[in-house]
Write a structure and sequence with these properties.
- The chain is an alpha+beta fold.
- The chain has one domain: GIY-YIG endonuclease (3-Layer(aba) Sandwich), CATH 3.40.1440.
- The protein contains five helices and three strands.
- A three-stranded antiparallel beta sheet has the order 2-1-3, with helices on both faces.
- Strand 1 (6-12) and strand 2 form a beta hairpin.
- The protein starts with 5 loop residues before the first strand and ends with a helix.
């Protein structure tokens, strides 16, 4: 039986003033898409330059990942900030760490 990989992630902009929550099965490719879309006013992540990864979670089942993404998207900013700070207190940009 093959193992599946789904990721719920949070990105931020260079000044850490906006956050975007998403879900994907290819985190590296999705981060590259966010980077290429920076400045695009038609998407939230593009409009606010949210391409720096600050939090991610792995889920083996797509339904769990979708439910988690919806849960986090429903939170207020303060709760999202607390989630990020729990695992990444300095809000380091994690892009390079997941590309290996």
């Amino acid at each position: 039986m093959s193992e599946h990989h789904y990721f719920v992630y949070i990105t931020t902009n260079p000044t850490r003033t906006a956050v975007y929550t998403g879900m994907t099965n290819d985190l590296v490719a999705r981060l590259q898409e966010h980077y290429e879309n920076r400045g695009n006013p038609e998407t939230f992540a593009g409009k606010y330059h949210c391409y720096h990864l600050v939090h991610w979670e792995h889920h083996p089942y797509v339904r769990n990942a979708i439910a988690r993404e919806k849960e986090i998207k429903g939170w207020r900013r303060k709760k999202k900030n607390a989630l990020i700070a729990e695992y990444n207190p300095e809000w380091r940009f994690l892009n390079a760490e997941i590309q290996h």
